[in-house]
Every structure is written in structure tokens, then in C-alpha cells.
Description:
Blueprint: H1 3-18, E1 38-39, E2 42-49, E3 56-62, E4 65-70, E5 82-86, E6 93-98, E7 106-112, E8 115-120, E9 125-130, E10 136-141, E11 150-152, E12 157-160, E13 165-169, E14 176-181, E15 183-184, E16 187-188, E17 192-198, E18 201-206, E19 211-215, E20 222-227, H2 229-238, E21 245-251, E22 256-261, E23 266-272
Parallel strand pairs: 1-20
Antiparallel strand pairs: 2-23, 3-4, 4-5, 5-6, 7-8, 8-9, 9-10, 11-12, 12-13, 13-14, 15-16, 17-18, 18-19, 19-20, 21-22, 22-23
Amino acid sequence: MNKKLTWIIAIIFLSACNNPEPKEVAPQNTPAISNEPTAINYSVVYAYPHDTTSFTEGFLVHDGELYEATGYTKEYPSSRSLFGVVDLKTGKIQKKVEIDRNKYFGEGIVFLNGKVYQLTYTTKIGFVYDAKTFKKIGEFTFPSAEGWGFTTDGKSLIMSDGSSNISYLDPITFKLVKVLGVTDNNGPVDSINELEIINGFIYANRYTTNYILKIDPSSGKVVGKLDLTTLDTEAKNKYPESLQLNGIAYDSTSKKVYVTGKLWPNIYEIKFNY
């Protein structure tokens, strides 16, 4: 064999060694990343009585006392449009203010800077009261077609209107400061109702569901969800006329959280990682 042919054979051999046949690679089972809101587990600490005539629209703690705001609807003649302090021994509301139920359907309330602000449902009118005497000191209008839930971050009045939007109002001029659109992994989340702020997050009842949503106020994204179906079922087993979950109140001093619903027989103190 001549030298030239030997070199050609050697080159072919080395090339084959350096370029092996491609091998199939088994697919990797990479777990899918879910962008659904995190399920928030909770436990019931205590069940208190609740007035089954209370058509709950607002729920909050102020100066260590639990307040409830209710609305009147003709379907439930014993309901009233009022707000006051809840006696946790009886569930009855110690009335502070009652508005004309033939004119107004009472909605959420909030305390801010020595005043109490109250929404009404479809009249686009709100009322302002002195937080000590509960004497009416003013009225206001708001840009939304309806008034639902109410809370505050200490600077703005924050309200829901049954849509996927949460509106921030200036407490002096009542002008719209900003609108926060609430969304989850499926898009806009409507029926945002009663509101509460806990540790910087907005917690919202979603009307006609058994969910309380944890909302990031910087983005409007729903980052967590409490499913209170068990409490809803218990309420309806105890009192068949019980309606929707609607009410979340947070005591920033004791760190207690209370929830209830329209015409429910109980107020529940619950515990969860918020």
C-alpha cells in the first residue's frame, strides 16, 4: 500500500471517530409552573353568634370593636340599612346609624381620620359621620355606578363596585385617584365585593362565591385564595336562609380575623398565614 493511500485511510478513520452517530436524547419531565393563585389554608378558632336578620354589606374592626354594616332588601322585610358595633355574645348590632331604607341600600363603611364614610348601593351617594358622635356631617358622590365594599390604606378611600375594578378616592375631594384592575391567571376577576387590608394586601370577598381573594395592591394580581365552602355549608345547614359569604374584618392589634355572610347564624374567627 503506498503512503498516499495510507494517509487517506487514516484521515477517514480519525474523522469517523471525531464525528460519532447522533444519539436520541430522552425528553426531560420538567414540571409545569402554575400561575394560579396559591390556596390559603385556614382553621376556625371560634364561632360566635350572628344575627340572621343582618344582610351583611360591611365588616371591620375599629378601636378593638367589630362593626357591621347592613342593607335593606324587600325580599327580607326584617333587614335594615344600618351600621354599628356587633355584640359577640349575641350577634346583635348595637346601632350607631340607620339610614332611610326606602331611599337607600346601605353598603360598606370605613373609618379614616376621625370620620366614618358609608356607601350606598345604586344612588351614587355616600355619607360622612363624626367617628365619635356618629352625627352626620356630610355627603359625597363617587364615580362608580354602584357602591359595594369599602376599606382604606390610611390615605385613600378604597371601594369596590361589583366589577373587576377597585377605585381609590381622595378622602377630601372624593375625586378618583386611581383604578386597580383585579386579575388572575384567567384574566379580569369580576364581582369584587367587601374589602379588607391585611399586612399590606387587599382581601376581597368575591360575590356569589365562597372565595376570599388576596390581591397585591401594586399590580392587582390575585396571589392567594381562601375557599370557605365548608363555612358556607355549615351556615346553610344551621340556617337554610343563609346567603352568600360577605364579610372579612381584621383587628390589627389582636391579629384576629373575622368572617361571616349575609343572614349567617355565625361569625367565625379564623386563622391563616397572611
